[in-house]
Every structure is written in structure tokens, then in C-alpha cells.
Write a structure and sequence with these properties.
The complex is a heterodimer of chains A (116) and B (111). Chain A is mostly beta strands and 116 residues long. In chain A, 0% of the residues lie in helices and 52% in strands. Chain A contains no helices and eleven strands. The radius of gyration of chain A is 13 Å and the shape is globular. Chain B is 0% helix and 59% strand. Classes of the chains: A mainly beta (116), B mainly beta (111). At the A-B interface, strand 9 and strand 10 of A face strand 4 and strand 5 of B.
């Protein structure tokens, strides 16, 4: 149980284009989903928290107009990287939590984004 | 300020050589402490949740313990397949109940 999927697992795009990453909780309903970014050999950096039906809460320093997050249902959240640049290349990981307030997060397998 | 510190940064063991990973934390009102395993190029895999001091949980060769200031992940007779990065995270009881991740301990187990 508690499986989270991400699609695509890797993507290469050209500078200036937009890329959408999907995160789905397959066997549970996630009231809260999180988006992280991870650089090589570094820990997770929280980008934003989204609750179903509400606007996402972005961490300080994360551009909300560049990283658009939508959490339209209890099983799906999307992250759209708009006007991507090479510095946006990274490993993006989503996670989902059943309870809005507490509990463990279940992570997706991650998406490797390369912007050329 | 809420903080999570993991030590050591990296640990090299021989197969069968038991050891412990440490997670020290300072947080206002602990709501939960979590351990995850992360393999290269993959998302973290949930291992344990601990809620109160004195609590212990086990899974195969892993055992997690919790005190008021730190948690240990004990690895008994590790195998090469236990090689991974182990992440500790704590959820605070204040400030929006944020979950704070440590930097992780990279474990290498040699056959």
C-alpha cells in the first residue's frame, strides 16, 4: 500500500519551453502533497506544499509563477515548470500524505529534468 | 530554530558489521520522527515513524529508537543491499507542522 507514482520519470526539454510533471497517489487519498527538488548528493529541498482544493504554499525563494502547482483531486498533483532554463535541471520528487496535519509522507520515484 | 542533524555523513561497513546511525533534533513539540531509505536516482522509501521517547520499531535488519533529543537507526549484520542513503525527518508541532529533513547518512556495505 501507499504507492505514489510520478510521470514522466525523465524528460529533456529545450530552454524556454514548459514541462508538466504528474504525481499520483495510487491506493490512497492524499489530502496533502509536497514537491521537492534534490541536487546530486544533497538532501531534499521542499519547494511547496499543496492541499487538495487549495492554493499551494511555496517556500521562501521558490518562484510561484515559474513552478505552477495544481492539486485538483485527492489523488493527483501537477508541477509545471514554465519557461524552463538550464538551471532548472534537477531531480524533482513529489510526496503525499494522508492526513493534512501529521504523519509520514510517501514519495514518488522522482523525475529527472534536463533543460538544454 | 527547528533543526535535524544526522551523523555520520558517510559510513563504510563490512558485511555483518553492525552499527548505528544518529539523528539529533531540536524541535518545538515533536509530532513525529521519520526514517527513510533513498537509493541513488530514486525517491525516498518510508521505513519508520516514531512518536514518543522510548518507542522502538523494527524491520528486518533495521531497528529505530527514539529519545527526547535523538533517534538511532541500528543496522544489525548489514548486507551489501543495505547500502543507501538514510534520511531522518521530524515534524514539528508548531509553525505549520512542517517536516524537516536531515542531510542523510550515506551507508556503504562491502561484501
Amino acid at each position: 500500500g501507499a504507492v505514489v507514482s510520478q510521470h514522466p520519470s525523465w524528460v529533456i526539454c529545450k530552454s524556454g519551453t514548459s514541462v508538466k510533471i504528474e504525481c499520483r497517489s495510487l491506493d490512497f487519498q492524499a489530502t496533502t502533497m509536497f514537491w521537492y527538488r534534490q541536487f546530486p548528493k544533497q538532501s531534499l529541498m521542499l519547494m511547496a506544499t499543496s492541499n487538495e482544493g487549495s492554493k499551494a504554499t511555496y517556500e521562501q525563494g521558490v518562484e510561484k509563477d515559474k513552478f505552477l502547482i495544481n492539486h485538483a483531486s485527492l489523488t493527483l498533483s501537477t508541477l509545471t515548470v514554465t519557461s524552463a532554463h538550464p538551471e532548472d535541471s534537477s531531480f524533482y520528487i513529489c510526496s503525499a500524505r494522508v492526513d493534512r496535519g501529521h504523519g509520514e509522507q510517501y514519495f514518488g520515484p522522482g523525475t529527472r529534468l534536463t533543460v538544454t | 530554530e527547528d533543526q535535524v542533524t544526522q551523523s555520520p555523513e558517510a559510513l563504510r561497513l563490512q558485511e555483518g558489521e553492525s552499527s548505528s546511525l544518529n539523528c539529533s533534533y531540536t524541535v518545538s513539540g515533536l509530532r513525529g520522527l521519520f526514517w527513510y531509505r533513498q537509493d541513488p536516482g530514486k525517491g525516498p522509501e518510508f521505513l519508520f515513524t516514531l512518536y514518543s521517547a522510548g518507542e522502538e520499531k523494527e524491520k528486518e535488519r533495521l531497528k529505530a529508537t527514539l529519545t527526547k533529543k535523538e533517534s538511532f537507526l541500528h543496522i544489525t549484520a548489514p548486507k551489501p543491499e543495505d547500502s543507501a542513503t538514510y534520511l531522518c525527518a521530524v515534524q514539528a508541532g508548531t509553525g505549520g507542522f512542517k517536516t524537516i529533513f536531515g542531510a542523510g547518512t550515506r551507508l556503504f556495505v562491502k561484501a
